[in-house]
Amino acid sequence: MLHLLNISILTGAVLVAAAIFSSLAARRFGAPLLLIFLLVGLVAGEDGLGLEFDNADLAYSIGTVALAIILFDSGFGTRLSTIRQAALPAFVLATVGVLLTAGLTALAAAFLFGFGWLEALLLGAIVSSTDAAAVFFLLRVGGIRLRERVRSTLEIESGSNDPMAVFLTVTLVELIGARSGLADATGALLGAFVLQMGLGLVLGALGGVLLVRIINRLDMDPGLYPILALAAALVLFALTSLLGGSGFLAVYVAGLYAGNKRLKNLASLQRFQEGMTWLAQIVMFLVLGLLATPSEFPAIVLPAIALAVFLIFVARPVAVWLCLLPFRFPRSESAFVAWVGLRGAVSILLAILPLAEAIPDGQLYFNVAFVMVLVSLVVQGWTIRPMAKRLGLIVPPRIGPVDKVELDLPGRSTHELVVYHVAADSPVARGGRIPRWARPSLVVRKGQSHRYAYAGRVEPGDHVYIFAAPRYVPLLDRLFANPATLDPEDEHFFGAFFVDPQHTVGELQMAYGADPGAAPPSTPIGQFIAERLGGRAEIGDRVSCGTIDLIVREIDPDGRPTGVGIVIEPEPEEGLARSPLLRNLVEIAAMVRQRIRR
Known about the structure:
The chain is α+β, with helices and mostly antiparallel strands.
């Protein structure tokens, strides 16, 4: 028994290490890391190195715990400012979008596999949600700096649509097992939806409040706080599930609440969560890869690939277009949201349920879902950066990389302690002054500590300790950053000319023949842009004024434009932008008015 245990530990550790080292090589080729983890499991499995693992119940249990950890961290890392920008469209995508995707995919599944409607809906539900892990890792770890609203929409949608897919899959599995008809299924789905989502939201909010209070009131060893937070998240998940609610939604909401409150040892909590999420990712994908039997794929590979292609190019884009129709998403942004419909571990995990519940054709569901996930990770995961660049959604860097560390402060301080390593060509090394609202306290130079007042001019290689309000830390980053290597396309993104946002639209009209519409001539350009954008701007936003486009180059912490670029006679839209697909209601109304005038 002890010998078998040691072999199991050795095998598991070697597989995890192999996945990590494989990811280092994968980065050079731009391969999605999650695809690599999945392939390592496949290579080590029954048809590869010969490791036999066919325990579907254990695989589902491991995957469920791992997904709960990932969703808690997803909520924990989502800022409220992100929620404010994209909450409504992301919520529609996470609920209505999942239903539409499942329904459209079911139509194709019924044709390709000859399923009945309930069985086709089950397969559609299994692959209906985007994978939170895949989206978060490819956007955050992949280093793609997207426009804020697009990134926020994708992250919130992927973090909140798993509960909907889980609910649909579990309910349909129960209905198929009970041999219910489609008419009976509709009423059962609605009732279960209200119960699971309602309990998940309420218990998740209560759990988040309790977690924050417990962490801030207890006085423990610093190493225990992250363990307590993780244990509390898993307790909340299990209790909510036992009471009939969505445990996945509950842990996401609890993480969202806790991550936006001041907590003791926040930095150690974040580091621990990051490490645990990586481990959960690797273990979940390895286990799911081990469970698969590639020798069974040839029998279903062609219809499964056809269904994946239908999902990627038809079902997901149509669902996204219908969900984003009421919102003012430009076609390029809608197209990118449609493309980043990555399927991942959640789909494979849900495909285990028919196996575990002995549903007829359970193995078929699993094999089809596995092939569809592979296709999604290869086709979509490998092309996220090129697609974002082609659609003009990657924000070029305005500052270079910053070498800094944020340290925890005891109690509930309103300031952060940030340590910057002074880069050789950074503005502060060239004599730039540290603003008065920041409070530098210490300079460490060649291993010696100096009070800032007596350290003299800051030198390259120094470490400077500064107290600052959290909202102003990004402004400090600019002082300590390496010089940015600007992309040659920056001029196209930010504009060829610069204009002071304090100038008026009347001056803009006289100088460039701009058409500001009904805006009074005395309106400052910055105010005009903010009003046209709904009160808050983000870098890269464009406002059309006839023969010119105004582009937001810089913003202050409140989202007001502080730097504005100009493009004179912008190029006409082409390709996707000229297509009638993915237009929003405002664009459709304008197109209809134009046709009527003609």
